[in-house]
Each structure stands twice: as C-alpha cells, then as structure tokens.
C-alpha cells in the first residue's frame, strides 16, 4: 500500500474514534438543541426581556450573581460589546460580554437538574457570538474548540449552538437562538466559543447545587 493511503485510513479511523468518544462523553447532562436558528426578534423586545427577570430569579448586583429558586428556568442571555453593556446596565464591562437580567457576566446559581430554557440574543452590531456551557474552567485559549464538542484543554461542552450574526440597528432586529439543557451538581462555565472572546473574558460561572 502507498504511504498516502495508509495515512488516510489512519485519519479516518481516528476521526471515527474521536466522534464516538465525544458522543459518549456527552451523555451525562441533558441537552436538546434549538430549532429556531435564524429567528429575528425586535431589539426593544430583547432589552425588555433582559430587564424583567422572573420572580424566581433573585438578582444580586453587589456580587454580580443571580440565584434561581425554580426547577423551570427561563434564561434570557444578551451578547454585546462592553460599551453597549455599560449603557444598558450601568455596570463596568470590558471586551465582549453576556448581559443576563441586568448584570454583566453574572455567576448563575441554581438547583441541580433544573430545566433551563435559554434564549440567546445577539445585540452586537459587528460581532458574532454564542452561549455554550462547559465544565472546563478558565483561562481559555484563543481557539477554545478542538472540533465537535471537545475543548482544547480536554474539557467537554455540555451544550452547543451556532454563532449568531450581528444585530441590524437599521431594522432594529436581532438574531435569536433557543435551546434547553439540564446540569448535574457541580461547577460549570458559560462561554462564547468565537475565537478570542472567552480568552478575553467573555464567560461566567454556573454553580449547580443539590
Ligand atoms: Cu462572542
């Protein structure tokens, strides 16, 4: 056999092994991908959702954290640059950030096995963003993704979603993606997997209790 052919066979076998490894490692936490990629939402509506946390979401701006006391959690996550975030929240921000119920990159505290229904809306006028949950703690590299749902540092992704395109401020519409997931007890992080974003601080912690 020619060396090129042997290398190709090895690459295919390794690829298949990698895919099944990622698939089986992902079985711990439950994740249902969204079906609404490409949905547009008025920017006004996104901001008013962010400003009206549900009654079971207790927002503590002093320590930048939100305590959820429900097993059915609606999580509205806005993504944007730091200037827009500072204008919207009055908090300090740097780089690209998540804004959740009035806070910048807050720590989310919730009970285990809650059903979390996340609505991610990109209010950035120029950048692509997403919202992905991982058990891999910071710091993050420029390229967090190794391929599929595996991270560069060896951790795994508990959720995955496409990048949302920038919002259009001339039509006042933003792109939205929704999905549902649950987390077992432990420490997790939500990050943006766009190259450089998590590396520069676009992440927050999720603490899942009993
Ligand atoms: Cu981003």
From TrEMBL:
Q: Name one Pfam family in it.
A: Copper-bind
Report if keyword Repeat is assigned.
Answer: no
Keywords associated with the record: Copper, Metal-binding
In what residue span(s) does the Blue (type 1) copper domain sit?
A: 120-208
InterPro entries recorded for this chain?
BlueCu_1, Cu_oxidase_CS, Cupredoxin
Which terms in the Gene Ontology molecular function aspect does this entry carry? copper ion binding; electron transfer activity
| Designated name of the protein | Blue (type 1) copper domain-containing protein
Question: Native species of this protein?
Answer: Sulfuracidifex metallicus DSM 6482 = JCM 9184
The record lists the lineage as: Archaea, Thermoproteota, Thermoprotei, Sulfolobales, Sulfolobaceae
